[in-house]
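Hey, I was hoping to borrow your eyes for a little while. I've been puzzling over a protein and I'd love to understand its fold better. The fold is given in discrete form, as structure tokens running alongside the sequence. I'd be grateful if you could look everything over and explain what you see. No rush at all, and the record is pasted right below.
>
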Amino acid sequence: MAEKKLSFAIFGNTSKALDTPQIVDILDYLVGREADIYIEQNFYHTLLKELKKDFSIAAVFERGNFDVDYVISLGGDGTFLKAASRVGAKQIPIIGVNMGRLGFLANVTSEEVKGVLDSVFEGKYEIEERAVIQLEADGAVLENCPFALNDIAILKRDNAAMISIKASVNGEYLVTYLADGLVISTPTGSTAYSLSVGGPIIVPQSGILSMTPVAPHSLNIRPIVINDEAEIKLEVQSRSHNFLAAVDGRSEKLSEGVTLTVKKAPYKVCIVKAYGQRFFSTLREKLMWGADTRQF
């Protein structure tokens, strides 16, 4: 039986296009497997500039204008988040190739990528679904992408004083945060910004979200975890009368007086995993979880 012809959309970090030997190696592999290759426009032009020659692809695309079997993210977790935002509700599995320093989402090394792609062509891999959350302002979706795989952060602007965030969960008043901000994180984002401000590490598929204040005025306010089916409402006040809403790092300025709603999105992100990849082993390797760092 003939092997099915597959198509791939490729996203990349333009600063990592300098690692062209590795990237060209991956492209050559896909060409050798007679795959249809589509490359995101900005990354394609950067590659052309670095390579100083054209290479065989099916087409170039912009933003989310693609329809393929798989997406390949070449970079770090930031590149993976960009790819995930472009995939959106398409449910296309994403292969994250780590060309950066620390990769929880981009967890395939450049040395492993051919083996993982072999598994994809043979259909011998696992799909892990990750929850996504969304942000609405006064019941309307934000102008920019409102969906976050990692986290949604409500933050003060620049040198402004701390902000006040009145939080309710499923219509019940929780607390008013006096802080530099508040990070609402999925399990996927629990090892990102949330962790750096003292949030808990959450195992994927736990079905919960965490709410962690950023530099709270009171030490009595601690991180809290809630069911991911809950609806969170936030009312923000600021001396500067505006604040930032960061959705997976994509910031948008909002004015006080709006009511924000955070809830689970109607779709999940699909991540390709090679057989044998497990969260706890990744935790030990990436964060040196449990390692004795004392110097003798």
